[in-house]
Amino acid sequence: MPWILPYAIDALLYGALAVYFWRTRWARREGEPHAARSAALEHHAVLAPLGLHAWLLAQSAFGAPGLTLGLGNAVSTILWLTVLIYWLGNFFYKLEGLQALVMPVAAVAALLPALLPLPQPLPNTEHAVFKFHLLIAMLAYSLFTIGSLHVLLMALLERRLHDGSLSQTLQRLPPLLAMEALLFRIIWAGFALLTLTLASGVVFSEELFGRAARFNHKTVFGVLSWLIFAALLAGRHIYGWRGRVAVRWTLAGFLTLVLAYIGSKFVLEVILGRG
After folding, report:
1. Residue 57: which of 145, 147, 144, 138 has the closest Cα?
2. What's the average model confidence in pLDDT over 165-171?
């Protein structure tokens, strides 16, 4: 088992930021003194756990010959990319409140490589098409993770608006319609990457095994998630789907995608104990 202390430190850094962002964005009530804070300082504070997270992934996933991408490293990589996309996106979209959802998930993910067994390095990593397939798959997962957290943020904001308990910080967010438009931009980007993931998987399978694709539950759930997101985007374009319909379809597509890759790794590595 890898040395757990640096993983625990990284998880604590993410956790501390999660508590801070929750208290300053969600828990503060109207009338309480508003502490002056620097948005730039908050933004750059995320770099501390993000940088440590990157170093730990480099050690656990790339430290040995080949690429070791078991369940722990896979989830950790996806959430590292999710935090990175959030951090970069924050230069263009100031969405207060999303930090309190992203950071606790990243805290758990950062600790997973130290807790879960490391399998054998992946085979066939020398193939360029496999590297491309893996990269866009991780990016697609990360974008859909951001999209799912974003849709949860919208649902929480809508409930707070109905309850009349929205803090002054969250009142400065864009209207829900603008946030919804951003959500569908994220989903479109993730859908494009998911399409490339499935297509590159077919090319890789043909190159390595001489057939278009292996029929297994990973393929079935991957295609099913593609169909769900395709239906969501078509429904948005044709029927103007929004609100709770968008929430349900987004989360359904994301959970199906999780079953396609993360679910299969969990069964193989944790339940069956196969590397």
Report:
1. 138
2. 73
